[in-house]
């Protein structure tokens, strides 16, 4: 009797298991695809938002990827830019559903991921058929570790600091684009005298003015000393640095009073609403302008030359961005396929039309891109010297102290000497 | 005969202790252990002894964060606890219908902190903000400020928002305490000719003293947990004028990726909070028992 009863229970149990297995097989996102027997997989790619125009292109790419590889699904993880840069990406990388690929800036941030074991060496893949003819060699600058490997698929080149100006204000006041620092100050004074705010910054997070300070300092003290200072090989409060910060201080009378209270996107909005005649920020302003600057006639010029400066006076402050492949991804080949699609001709066209400056060999071919976007990309690619902002190309703690100093000076709460002495003292105490 | 159940009490306590160990003790011990290491989050952990702690006591931003936190505590004791007490006194005053005010004062407590932070950022805005707009409207242009961008006003401005939120919370606590005071005490005082304010300050407040002490304890220890309001409104700026311990911790851990140092900073903060809490509890214990029984 007991044996019979056990057999009955076993039969019921086996039945339940069979039904459950069938149900799971039908529902699972990673089980075999009934149509072709291949496994269904989801590829996650993480990035900070670059504006609505760009963000919407990810859906189009996801569709195209799924069309080409029916058993694969692309899941873009788009976070608010500041969140992504600080807490977002580290949290994602340590989560159970870590992204297979993720956006990053070239240089130290990228190298940090490689050191942490989150970066996959893409050099072999980039030499393969999928990426053939897509990039010039120069596109991979700063994407290696000590000259070895390539850990990013280049995506866009960002010019990090130019002066965007309202052409109508310049025309109204009879101003021409300044080419030297003295002319630049004179232009700002003329705008201020007319009752308008000459220059708006949203420096709540410190990198906007920090970028300007990076550019100014490299122009004044020379790129080598700038680099040494930001790498901790020279003091932050050297006489040369104090002299360079004097130029930043000379801008202080012309900036918005809320310089250290506004966020960067709020400052962009102030410029778009014509509450300020100019703004110094990077090429990504074009992406926001596509949706927010309706009717505003604006253009840009590079930071004016400082005749007494020791650096290249036509240098461009910029940095390349790209996508890293997570070394811990279980779907390396599939992610490489995606990254190849991300930089193919069709995607390149889409990114360019959305206001970005792709790093591919043919960024604007057949694209009805904004001429300013094209010219920014050309300025970056033809620059004799490209300088990286302190927080992207150098020691992050030194950059933070440097940006603190820049914020104090532009806010008028410290002299250049005081601000840089404080910054150096912080670095000394950090050991 | 007395039953022998030596293990029973321990078995009964075990589930609660296991839960406490899992969610509190374990993380505290792990964090303390990490304080002695150099670790970026994913690289190999390297033992560095006490160097993270010695660095913390040389770190002027960290020390400034404590100064700001203590100023914030002092301000919120006024803006939250004292204002909450006054509001509770007003809404419990006799002969007034105060249901609407009780709800109105409590509403900020239930609003999401991020919404409040963004909302008040607009209120404090230098060009479109309500405060500067009102000052300009009455001809006091010289008093307008960039409230969140001026190091001398930013901390007070954020503390005021904190007061706006939590005064209603403390009002609710004090309201509950005040309504438990027996009517005959108030009636006797009234018959003796006491005014409304004398009744409040000389009878009601002393009688709810235990609840006020609890509120102070909550306010002081809660100040060390504050983060989102400061992060959204000022992100610690300008010039670190609103840097508090938690915002600096986030900077160290998530921007500098220095988890070992961040762990040391949070270990020190834990010690500070526990010490303050113990001192306050000891002070309460010395003189109690005169208030309303709850």
Describe it.
The complex is a heterodimer of chains A (431) and B (294). In chain A, 48% of the residues lie in helices and 13% in strands. Chain A folds into two domains: 11-158 and 320-380, Periplasmic binding protein-like II (D-Maltodextrin-Binding Protein, domain 2, 3-Layer(aba) Sandwich), CATH 3.40.190; 162-281 and 395-430, Periplasmic binding protein-like II (D-Maltodextrin-Binding Protein, domain 2, 3-Layer(aba) Sandwich), CATH 3.40.190.10. Residues 1-5 and 17-34 of chain A have low confidence and may be disordered. Chain A starts with a helix and ends with a helix. Chain A has 431 residues and is of the alpha/beta class. In chain A, strand 1, helix 2 and strand 2 (72-79) form a beta-alpha-beta unit. Chain A has helices at 2-27, 52-68, 81-93, 108-115, 123-127, 167-172, 181-193, 207-221, 223-230, 239-251, 264-272, 285-292, 332-342, 345-353, 371-382, 390-393, 396-410, 416-430, and strands at 41-48, 72-79, 101-105, 153-159, 162-166, 199-200, 278-281, 298-301, 316-325, 386-387. Chain A is globular and about 70 Å long. In chain A, strands 1, 2, 3, 4, 9 and 10 form a six-stranded mixed β-sheet that branches. A four-stranded mixed β-sheet of chain A has the order 6-7-5-8. Chain B has a domain at 68-244: MetI-like (MetI-like fold), CATH 1.10.3720. In chain B, a hairpin with a 7-residue loop joins strand 1 (37-38) and strand 2. The two termini of chain B are 39 Å apart. Chain B has a two-stranded antiparallel ribbon with strand order 1-2. In chain B, helix 3 (60-91) runs antiparallel to helix 10 (209-223), helix 8 (183-191) packs antiparallel against helix 9 and helix 12 runs antiparallel to helix 13. Chain B has 294 residues and is mostly helical. Chains A and B meet through helix 3, helix 17 and helix 18 of A and helix 2 and helix 12 of B.
């Amino acid at each position: 009797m007991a044996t019979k009863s056990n057999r009955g229970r076993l039969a019921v149990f086996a039945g339940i298991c069979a039904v459950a297995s069938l149900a799971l097989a039908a529902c699972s996102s990673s089980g075999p695809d009934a149509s072709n027997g291949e496994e269904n997989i989801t590829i996650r790619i993480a990035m900070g938002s670059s504006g609505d125009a760009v963000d919407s292109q990810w859906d189009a790419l996801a569709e195209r990827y799924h069309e080409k590889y029916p058993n694969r699904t692309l899941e873009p993880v788009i976070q608010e830019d500041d969140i992504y840069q600080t807490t977002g990406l580290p949290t994602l990388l340590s989560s159970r559903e870590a992204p297979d690929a993720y956006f990053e800036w070239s240089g130290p941030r990228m190298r940090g991921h490689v050191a942490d074991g989150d970066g996959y060496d893409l050099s072999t893949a980039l030499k393969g058929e999928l990426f053939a003819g897509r990039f010039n060699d120069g596109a991979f600058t700063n994407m290696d570790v000590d000259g070895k490997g390539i850990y990013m698929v280049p995506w866009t080149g960002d010019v990090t600091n130019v002066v965007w100006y309202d052409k109508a204000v310049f025309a109204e006041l009879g101003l021409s684009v300044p080419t030297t620092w003295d002319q630049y100050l004179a232009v700002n004074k003329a705008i201020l005298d007319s009752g308008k705010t000459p220059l708006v910054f949203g420096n709540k997070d410190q990198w906007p003015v920090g970028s300007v300070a990076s550019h100014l300092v490299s122009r004044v003290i020379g790129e080598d000393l700038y680099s040494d200072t930001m790498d901790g090989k020279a003091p932050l409060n050297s006489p040369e640095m104090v002299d360079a910060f004097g130029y930043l201080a000379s801008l202080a009378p012309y900036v918005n009073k809320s310089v250290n209270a506004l966020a960067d996107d709020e400052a962009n909005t102030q410029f778009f609403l014509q509450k300020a005649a100019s703004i110094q920020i990077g090429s990504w302003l074009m992406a926001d302008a596509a949706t927010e600057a309706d009717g505003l006639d604006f253009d840009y010029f590079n930071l004016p030359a400082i005749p007494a400066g020791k650096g290249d006076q036509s240098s461009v402050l910029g940095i390349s961005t790209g996508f890293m492949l997570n070394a811990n991804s279980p779907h390396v080949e599939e992610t490489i396929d995606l990254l190849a699609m991300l930089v193919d001709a069709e995607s390149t066209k889409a990114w360019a039309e959305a206001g970005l400056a792709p790093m591919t060999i043919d960024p604007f071919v057949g694209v009805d891109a904004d001429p300013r976007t094209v010219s920014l990309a050309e300025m970056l690619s033809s620059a004799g010297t490209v300088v990286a902002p302190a927080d992207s190309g150098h020691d992050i703690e030194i950059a933070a102290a440097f940006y603190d100093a820049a914020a104090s000076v532009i806010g008028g709460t410290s002299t250049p000497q005081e601000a840089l002495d404080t910054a150096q003292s912080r670095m000394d105490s950090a050991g | 005969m007395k039953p022998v159940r030596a293990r029973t009490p321990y078995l009964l306590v075990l589930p609660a202790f296991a839960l406490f160990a899992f969610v509190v003790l374990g993380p505290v011990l792990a964090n303390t252990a990490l304080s002695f290491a150099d670790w970026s989050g994913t690289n190999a952990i390297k033992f560095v002894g006490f160097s993270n702690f010695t660095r913390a006591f040389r770190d002027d931003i960290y020390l400034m964060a404590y100064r700001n936190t203590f100023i914030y505590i002092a301000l919120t004791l006024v803006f939250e606890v004292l204002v909450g007490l006054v509001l509770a006194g007003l809404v419990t005053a006799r002969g007034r219908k105060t249901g609407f005010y009780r709800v109105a004062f409590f509403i900020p407590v239930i609003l999401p902190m991020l919404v409040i932070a963004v909302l008040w950022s607009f209120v404090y805005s230098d060009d479109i903000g309500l405060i500067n707009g009102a000052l300009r409207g009455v001809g006091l242009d010289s008093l307008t400020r960039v409230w969140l961008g001026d190091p001398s006003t930013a901390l007070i401005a954020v503390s005021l928002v904190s007061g706006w939120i939590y005064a209603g919370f403390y009002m609710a606590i004090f309201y509950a305490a005040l309504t438990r005071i027996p009517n005959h005490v108030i009636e006797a005082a009234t018959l003796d000719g006491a005014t409304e304010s004398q009744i409040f300050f000389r009878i009601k407040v002393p009688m709810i003293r235990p609840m006020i002490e609890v509120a102070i304890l909550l306010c002081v220890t809660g100040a060390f947990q504050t983060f989102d309001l400061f992060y959204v409104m000022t992100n610690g700026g300008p010039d670190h004028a609103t840097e508090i311990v938690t915002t600096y911790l986030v900077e160290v851990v998530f921007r500098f990726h220095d988890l070992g140092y961040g762990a040391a900073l949070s270990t020190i903060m834990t010690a500070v909070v526990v010490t303050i809490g113990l001192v306050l509890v000891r002070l309460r214990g010395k003189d109690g028992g005169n208030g309303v029984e709850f």
